[in-house]
Design goal:
The protein is of the alpha/beta class. The chain folds into 3 domains: about 300 residues, Glycosidases (TIM Barrel, Alpha-Beta Barrel); about 90 residues, Immunoglobulin-like (Sandwich); about 120 residues, Galactose-binding domain-like (Jelly Rolls), CATH 2.60.120.260. Strand 10, helix 6 and strand 11 form a beta-alpha-beta unit. The longest helix is centred in the first third of the chain and has 25 residues. It is globular. The N terminus is likely disordered. Pfam families: F5_F8_type_C, Glyco_hydro_2_C. Belongs to the glycosyl hydrolase 2 family.
C-alpha cells in the first residue's frame, strides 16, 4: 500500500501503510511450538504519575519505561515470536487494532513479561488509502459505532495482565488533510480530536486502571489534543528522522502531559532525498541501524516527559516496505535488529551478527540500463564473525506499477561480491536489492535504483515526431492524461498514449511518404497489449500485416521486420489488463 510520497516540510501526505501486518515467514532460530502458559487472571494497575516535567509510568506502583516495538505477526502467531521479542530486552509491543482475535497476543505477552499498547483504528488513519474519509461533524452513525465497539473490547480485556494501555487512532489528524482543506479541515480536526476525547471518557468509565493515549503522525496534532482532548492521560506521536526534535516541540508547545513515541526508526521514504533517478534514496543498512540508536538516545534524553517508545518494526514481511523497515524480513535478522537489542539491554552474549555491506555499485550508467541486457553489480561486504557469505539479487517495480513484491532473479556469481543478471525488460525506474547472507540466520541488504531504457536500435527512428492518430485516447487527468497519440512518437518515456478501455484499439503514424523499414520497437506501459498486429499501408485504409503477436506480456517488444508504406500502425485486438492500451513509445526504424 505504498504510494510515491509528496514530501513537504513537517508533514507527510503519503507514507507506508501501518495497518497490522501478517507474518510472511517464521523467525529463524526463535520459533517455538510450546503452548503459552496460562496468564494470571488479574489485571495490572497502570498509571501516569508525577507532576509537570517529572512524570513516570508505573505498573502496580513500580516505574515502567516503555522499551518497545510495533508488532507485525498475527495475534495467533504470538507464541512463535514473543520469546524472541522478550530476548531483545523488549517489554512492550504496540498494535493498531483490538478485537476478538487479540486474546492469544495478550495472553502470550503476559506469559513472557511483555505488555501491549492496544490500538483502536479510526478513519482515515495512516494517510491516504487507509480507511476512507469520515465527516466527524455529521457522521453520527460511525461515531456511535466506535463509541460502542471500542469500550466493548476494553471491557473484554481490561483484566488481562498483558494490557499496558489503550491507544485511540493513528495519524488521523494529519490524515484528514487528504479528505478536507481550508476551514473545513480545521473544523474536522477539532471534531476528530473532540471525538477522541469522547472515546477516552468512555474507556476510562469502563477501565480506570489503564491509561489512554492517541497517536498522530506529527507534533502539529498535539495542539488539537491539548485543546479538545483533556481526558487523554498522555500524548503519542510517530516520528522517524525528526524524532530528536520532538523534545523541542513539546517544550515550545507548553504541554502539560507526557508523551510516548509510538513509531520511530530510520528515515522514511517521505523524508529522504531523491537519488539520481528521481526516487527516494533508501538508507544503507548501517544508517538504518544507527537510526534506531539515535532515536532511543533522543527518547531517553527527555527525562520525566518521554516515557518510552515502540520502535518500528518487528515484522517479517519480505517486500518493499519490509526491506525498508523490518528488523527481520523473511525471519532473517538485520543490523537494525541487533541495534534495538543493544539499546534495550537485551543479552548479546554469543550473538552471531549480520554481514556489513559497505558498497553496492552498478557498472555502467545506472540511469540508462538497456532493457533485457546483462547488468553487473558489485557488492563489498564483510562478516564480523568470519562466516561464509552467499548472495542473492532481487528486483522491485514499485516506482513503475506500485507493486511491493520482490522478485529473485537468476544470477551469475562472478566472485568477490560481483553478480551478473538480466536487467528487466520493462522501461522505468526499478530497485535492485542485493541480500548478503551468513548462513546463521542473519542478512545484510543494500538497494540501488536503476532506470531501464529501451535497448538501442541500429538505424533512424522515422516515426519520431511524425503525425500520429489513434482510435481513441484518454482525456481526463487520471494517470497523467490527456494521453494523445502524439505522446507515443515524441521520444519521451515519461508520457504515453492511452486508449479507451475496450477492444480493438489502434494507433498509427504517418511517415509522410512510402518508406521502407526493418525494425519496430514498442515500449509498453503497465497496460499492454496481449494480442496485436503491426501493419503498414499506402493509403491509410488498406493494411498489410508485417508482425503478429498473440502472447504479449508487456515491457519492450523489439521486432526485425521487412515493411514498406506511408502509414504504420499498431492494431490491438486483446488487452493484457482490464485497462486500455498504453504505449510510451512506438519506434519505426530504417
Amino acid at each position: 500500500m505504498y504510494r510515491p510520497p509528496t514530501r513537504t516540510a513537517g508533514t507527510r501526505t503519503a507514507r507506508r501503510a501501518v495497518v497490522p501486518f501478517a507474518a510472511a515467514a517464521l523467525l529463524a532460530g526463535a520459533v517455538t511450538g510450546v503452548q503459552a502458559p496460562t496468564a494470571q487472571a488479574a489485571g495490572n494497575v497502570v498509571k501516569v504519575t508525577g507532576s509537570q516535567g517529572a512524570w513516570a509510568l508505573t505498573v502496580n506502583g513500580a516505574p515502567y519505561q516503555i522499551k518497545g516495538l510495533t508488532w507485525g505477526p498475527s495475534a495467533a502467531d504470538a507464541e512463535k515470536y514473543l520469546p524472541d521479542v522478550a530476548s531483545m530486552g523488549v517489554n512492550t509491543i504496540r498494535t493498531w487494532g483490538t478485537d476478538a482475535s487479540s486474546k492469544p497476543l495478550f495472553d502470550s505477552a503476559a506469559a513472557h513479561g511483555v505488555k501491549v499498547i492496544a490500538g483502536f483504528w479510526l478513519q482515515p488513519g495512516g494517510g491516504p488509502g487507509s480507511g476512507g474519509c469520515v465527516n466527524y461533524l455529521t457522521d453520527t452513525a460511525y461515531k456511535n459505532d466506535m463509541l460502542a465497539e471500542f469500550p466493548k473490547w476494553v471491557d473484554t480485556y481490561k483484566d488481562n495482565p498483558g494490557v499496558l494501555m489503550w491507544n485511540v487512532g493513528n495519524e488521523s489528524v494529519l490524515g484528514l488533510q487528504n479528505c478536507y482543506s481550508g476551514d473545513e479541515l480545521e473544523k474536522q480536526r477539532d471534531a476528530y480530536t473532540t471525538f477522541v476525547n469522547d472515546i477516552t471518557k468512555k474507556i476510562h468509565a469502563v477501565d480506570p486502571n489503564h491509561p489512554v493515549t492517541s497517536t498522530d503522525a506529527w507534533t502539529g496534532a498535539w495542539p488539537y489534543f491539548k485543546k479538545n482532548a483533556p481526558d487523554l492521560d498522555l500524548y503519542a506521536v510517530n516520528s522517524y528522522k525528526e524524532v530528536c526534535g520532538v523534545k523541542s516541540d513539546w517544550e515550545k508547545g507548553g504541554y502539560n502531559k507526557p508523551y510516548i513515541i509510538t513509531e520511530t526508526g530510520p528515515a522514511g521514504e517521505w523524508e529522504v532525498p531523491d537519488d539520481a533517478n528521481g526516487v527516494p534514496q533508501e538508507p544503507a543498512d548501517t544508517a538504518k541501524a544507527e537510526g534506531y540508536t539515535k532515536a532511543w538516545d533522543c527518547v531517553t534524553g527527555h527525562k520525566g516527559v518521554a516515557l518510552g517508545a515502540t520502535m518500528f518494526h518487528y515484522g517479517t514481511e519480505y517486500d518493499f516496505g519490509g526491506i525498508w523497515f523490518n528488523l527481520l524480513p523473511a525471519g532473517e535478522r538485520r543490523l537494525s535488529y541487533y541495534s534495538v537489542k543493544k539499546a534495550y539491554k537485551g543479552s548479546t552474549s554469543g550473538d552471531n551478527t549480520p554481514p556489513v555491506i559497505s558498497a553496492l555499485d552498478v557498472e555502467g550508467n545506472a540511469s540508462a540500463v538497456p532493457a533485457g541486457k546483462d547488468l553487473t553489480v558489485t557488492t563489498k561486504a564483510t562478516d564480523p564473525d568470519g562466516d561464509t557469505l552467499s548472495y542473492e539479487a532481487l528486483l522491485n517495480s514499485n516506482y513503475i506499477d506500485q507493486s511491493k513484491a520482490l522478485t529473485s532473479v537468476p544470477v551469475t556469481d562472478l566472485g568477490g561480491g560481483k553478480l551478473r543478471f538480466k536487467a528487466p525488460d520493462k522501461a522505468g525506474v526499478w530497485k535492485i536489492y542485493v541480500k548478503v547472507k551468513d548462513g546463521k540466520g542473519n542478512v545484510g541488504v543494500e538497494t540501488r535504483s536503476i532506470r531501464v531504457v529501451p535497448p538501442p536500435v541500429d538505424g533512424t527512428n522515422i516515426a519520431l515526431g511524425r503525425p500520429a492518430t489513434a482510435s481513441s485516447f484518454q482525456t481526463d487527468s487520471t494517470g497523467g492524461c490527456p494521453c494523445p497519440a502524439s505522446n507515443a512518437v515524441d521520444g519521451k518515456l515519461d508520457n504515453r498514449w492511452a486508449s479507451d478501455w475496450s477492444d480493438p484499439q489502434w494507433l498509427q503514424v504517418d511517415l509522410g511518404a512510402s518508406t521502407s523499414f526493418h525494425h519496430v520497437q514498442l515500449t509498453w506501459e503497465a497496460a499492454y497489449a496481449k494480442a496485436y498486429t503491426v501493419q503498414t499501408s499506402d493509403d491509410g485504409t488498406n493494411w498489410r500485416t508485417v508482425q503478429e503477436v498473440k502472447d504479449g506480456d508487456g515491457g519492450i517488444d523489439d521486432f526485425d521486420v521487412q515493411g514498406k508504406g506511408r502509414y504504420v500502425r499498431v492494431n490491438g485486438t486483446q488487452r493484457g489488463t482490464g485497462y486500455g492500451y498504453s504505449l510510451h513509445e512506438f519506434g519505426v526504424y530504417n
